[in-house]
Amino acid sequence: MAHKKEALKEGCYGDEVRDHILEFAENGGYEAIPEDERETWFTRFKFWGLFHQRDGQESYFMMRLTNASGILEPDQLRTIGEVARDYATGPVANPEFGNGWIDLTTRQSVQLHWLKLEDVPEIWEKLESVGVHSRSAGGDTMRNISGCPLHGKAEEFVEAGPLLERFEEELRKDDALANMPRKFNISASGCTVGCAQDSINDIGFEPATKEIEGEEVRGFNVRVGGGLGGRQPRAATPLDIFVRPENAYEVGRGFVELYHDYGDRQNRSKNRARFFAEDWGMEKIRETLQDEYVEFEMHTAGEDFRGEYTYNAGKPVEAGQHDHVGVGDQKDGQHYVGLSVPVGRLPAEDAIELADLADEYGSGEVRLTRRQNPVIVDVADDDLESLLAEPLLSEYPAEPSPFERGAMACTGTEFCSIALTETKGRMARMLRWFNENVELPDDVGKIKIHYSGCTADCGQAMTADIGLQGMRARKDGEMVEAFDIGVGGGVGEDPSFIDWVQQRVPADEAPGAIRNLLQAYAAHCDDGQTFRQWVDATGTEQLVEFCEPQETDFEAPYMADAKQSWYPFAEGESAPTPTAEESAAPSDD
Prior knowledge:
This protein is α+β, with helices and mostly antiparallel strands. It has 4 domains: 4-129, Sulfite Reductase Hemoprotein, domain 2, CATH 3.90.480; 151-308, 2-Layer Sandwich (Sulfite Reductase Hemoprotein, domain 1); 325-401, Alpha-Beta Plaits, CATH 3.30.70; 404-547, Sulfite Reductase Hemoprotein, domain 1. The protein contains 18 helices and 21 strands. The strands form 4 sheets. Strands 6, 7, 8, 9, 10 and 11 form a 6-stranded mixed beta sheet that branches. α7 packs across α9 (282-293). The two termini are 27 Å apart. Residues 572-589 have low confidence and may be disordered.
């Protein structure tokens, strides 16, 4: 029997949902939706990037935008900022971030919160006038296509831009493929840094080379079945296929169609492509692709560059690029400047000012990364010093602290109904506290701390130096917010996921536990040894002892129960721990 969400999608999904959203908006907004039909329509709305916010925030919506591989063309960021300023304001200001801001996501896109349904037509009109849209940004469909944010600007072994553009224009816009069994993530990168993180995508294209008929050919190897969530992460498995750039789209489309046709539509906790790939196996997938979906004869895999991957790979800073923060060289002789936006939250006025700086010092184009940060591109030598001296870059520096540089956080209980803890505000405060209370060796340039509000792992905690996942615990007879703490995750040549060293640590004791762990690292690491290398060389039992929970002077306004602090849904009981199905089925990422 198909899952109930399949019935909710039946008869109306994809492009036709837009007309219904417009109709509801014009007839009174949220109140125009029949109460007994709201669950159905909210499921359908997600295809157009429109998510009803959590219980207690009735009538407010989040809108996720889509911009393949993180490219925001001139005027697009400014318009997004103006929309956030004019429409994305809630009834209660966030105590850390105020009101009216944008969230940068881990899939190189943007989310807007506190929107009213009746404003959606105007919002779409403003965004679409500059080429920004929300189609296929949520729901059971192909999500934002991720790639190297500097493709076309930095050096690439094989050009990925044309492939990314075809995926966006021809595959994601095909309404026949709108209704997938579950959300589906695609990545493609032509650089040898590994920044598209093919390891954690449903299908990933990585640069490779292969000798074919005596000729050394540049193209892509293909991996499938990667993903996080539900404490069941999977690294994508090599499909043993090499494709020329001109054939890559057909293979990507073929696997999307294969999953669309054969994917499980019954058990949503086990129907992501990573489980599908595991059940079928690489040989059956490859043979079915060749027999039913791909018209040319596929080659076996070529030689990849995974040994050179440095992006979030746990290697020393001098080994190569591990993120896109800082000043870097473009292949045309100009520069890019990546800014650090801790936890990815950018006030509307700052987003507008960032767009102004991109116009003044660059081409006006801004690129977004998979680490929730923006990059100004096309900066000339003569303008670089002046850009770095701008006041905004004191707030979002190109040379941040190791903690700020490595931080990511999901939405948390602020808006997500399955999250167990507040995330972004707490993480922002912890970063400041770590800056003041933890001293790292001079040669440590980054500590990647990722925070997810629950086991769905939208914050990618499983791939961090230090991964935090929201939990609940009892302390002094009361239920409080808590963390599970893990160490040693990352992507690279051989992707690894964190090992848990402490579980259900009360929120007021978790910063102390992390500080104790980092102080142990500073005291015991060898010169030049990264945190991940130190973790690998240190026994689990010793790491558990180092990561000792401890009460400290750290303070936040939501230590006990974020769902009963400052939010407009402060009344009533907190939500229970999600079911197994919910834990493995995040609402977004």
